[in-house]
Amino acid sequence: MMQVQAPSAVVMIRPHHFHSNPETQGDNAFQRATSGTPCVAARSEFDGVVERLRAHGVTVHDFDDTGMETPDSVFPNNWLSTHSGGHIAVYPMHAANRRRERRWDIIDMLKTQYRVQDVIDYSGLEQDGLALEGTGAMVLDHIGRIAYVARSRRADPALLERFCTHFNFEPIAFDARDAQGRPVYHTNVLMTIGTRFAMVGLEMITHPHCRETVAERLRETGRDVIGLGTDQIGEFAGNAIELCGKDGPVLALSRRALAALDTDQKRRIEAHATLLPLSIPTLETAGGSVRCMIAGLHLARRSPTGA
Fold this sequence. Notes:
With 307 residues, the chain is of the alpha/beta class. It has a single domain, classed as L-arginine/glycine Amidinotransferase, Chain A. Helices cover 27% and strands 22% of the residues. The strands form 5 sheets. A 3-stranded mixed beta sheet has the order 2-1-15. Strands 3-4-5 form a 3-stranded mixed beta sheet, with no helix packed on it. The protein is globular. Pfam families: DDAH_eukar. InterPro entries: Amdntrnsf_FN0238.
């Protein structure tokens, strides 16, 4: 069961032209202006994350950013997702400069090292003004086969239905807003789904019925549903990912996110996974955190002979 929800291998992109993206700041309330030399600090933070993940037994396929105009390249989970059975999805992005992040050399690597049956490429729908930004827009329950989605211009409802049909997920869409009444731009800042627990900012889901539906569907799979407050969401406490390490499950999250959790929340998480805090203060100025940096690989490895 652990491998279903928590991948043991990931893809990550080392940033080389990192800065807060002006094309996304209109609806990303988490962004902050960068100062000094953010590229140098961002690369250092990135390398620290890779080192710590590998030390815990997570396989990291790291690639260097090759674009000159890709400030958000460090967040590959928005354009790429992988799925059991050998399936890959490539997504359409809302911001024009984010569309340059897609890397077909990464897809080729996955085909070489993992069993890949097909690649479903939705990116051409950008020409129609449609976007579905991967596992930023969707938080996927791989066990319950549910795609949770906070409605936004980065999650087109028709595209969501198409994805769910192709990949056998049930869509559950809802409206979510922060304390200032702004829509949540990506669902993965609002909630994290692990194998035996989930963390979710339920109070930010505006409709009471939708709020209860989300909590109930998470509980149906036997998960401990840990509520997060609006202030904790603002500290990226919802932007975490469970991974399968050499000694069992780990929850990768930022140090800022961990500091926002209270003692009881930490205790409940630690009943199911080891907390793995990572220091990324510069990278978080771009409006994303640890979950955004990681594209999990739900694919089977090829044998050494390539069969």
